[in-house]
Amino acid sequence: MAQAHEIDYRIVGEEMQYVEIELDPNETAVAEAGSFMLMDDGIQMQTIFGDGSANAPTGVLGKLFSAGKRLLTGESLFMTAYTNIGHGKKRVSFAAPYAGKIIALDLLRLGGPVVCQKDAFLCAAKGVSVGIALQRKLGTGLFGGEGFIMQKLEGDGMAFVHAGGHVFERELQPGELVKIDTGCVVAYTHTVDFDIQFVGGIKNTIFGGEGLFFATLRGPGKVWIQTLPVSRLASRILSYGTTNRKEEGSLLGGIGNLLDGDGFR
């Protein structure tokens, strides 16, 4: 028998998506602080420690420890629970924090926990546990792009994660190996073996511009891959903000800046 609440949903939008969750009476969804967008009248909000799952620790110390683990994954101590206390179906929506895609994960269908980026979690049905996954291999923790600690989503309900750019799913057969940029790994099922491999070659290392390490993922299992890690996007924005702008029309140069107003700032 399923432990998590059974929720219906739809994902709306293209580049800036949101997920709309439909709640029957007494059903609850939990979400990351700051992701709320809108809800119908008759839904009650409640701030809770941790994720509100059935296997959450009891007692003050247990709850503090459970919620404290969330700090290690870059999340806040608190989550917000949204419960339909009215009659009939009610809807609540949660928005993505930046341009990208929202991925719906049916943990029951996937057959076990899913490991994902530290800040990927958006919302879930009440009963889904949002914990931590420790990387046991030294190299994976040091050079894997996410450090030693990642998020682990487990249970038998629906969970929703978000990642930058376009996100696609890759099904790996037993023994099949794929090499991915360390920042592009969004999530993978618990059956996938995740490791790190040195790129190799002096020219590749110095002039390749792709970093020193690959993430290697070996099947069986599913992997979700993003085209634009938020760290890559942030570094590009920072580079434009701290250096002189690259001119689109280089023949105009400073005259172009003057005409479009930059010369008067």
From TrEMBL:
Cited Gene3D superfamilies: Mitochondrial biogenesis AIM24
Coiled-coil features, chain-numbered ranges: none
Pfam families associated with the record: AIM24
Source domain of life: Bacteria
PANTHER family: ALTERED INHERITANCE OF MITOCHONDRIA PROTEIN 24, MITOCHONDRIAL (PTHR43657:SF1), TRYPTOPHAN RNA-BINDING ATTENUATOR PROTEIN-LIKE PROTEIN (PTHR43657)
UniProt-listed NCBIfam families: TIGR00266 family protein
Name of the protein in question: Uncharacterized protein (TIGR00266 family)
Organism encoding this protein: Lacibacter cauensis
